[in-house]
Amino acid sequence: MTVKTSPYNPFDYLNTAEEINEYLSTAFADEDPRVFLIALGHLARKRGMSEVARKAGVNRVSLYKSLSGDGNPGYATIAKIARALGITLRAEPAH
Questions:
Q1: DSSP assignment of 23-66, as one string?
Q2: With b meaning 16 or more CB within 10 Å and e meaning fewer, what string describes 47-66?
Q3: pLDDT by residue (tens digit) across 25-49?
Q4: What is the pLDDT of residues 56-71, one digit of tens each?
């Protein structure tokens, strides 16, 4: 028996800004930085990779690689992508 699967994007199920913020904040807090990059990748796919790449001033192929979890983008690239997605990265004291 063959099981049919389809791509999963959590942003298809997050409707409010608060839900999106909570998802990204949880991913950012993970010890593995790839979790946050993958979360940004899901959001970028939802918003349109070509449009995000254009706004961030990066090559679309490089954007895919940076947000795949296998890439190793620098902070400047992550900051450009975040701005293109309309999100702000910030640090808060640990609880």
A1: HHHHHHHSSSHHHHHHHHHHHHHHH-HHHHHHHHTS-HHHHHHH
A2: eebeebbebbebeeeebeeb
A3: 999 999 999 999 999 999 999 999 9
A4: 999 999 999 999 888 8
Token pair for 17: 């800004």
Tell the residue number behind the tokens 């961030």, with chain if given: 56
Contact 67, 80 (CB under 8 A): no
Phi–psi pair at 20, nearest 5 degrees: -65, -45
Predicted TM-score (pTM) of this structure: 0.84
d(CA 51, CA 45): 10
In tens, the pLDDT along 8-26 reads 888 888 888 899 889 999 9
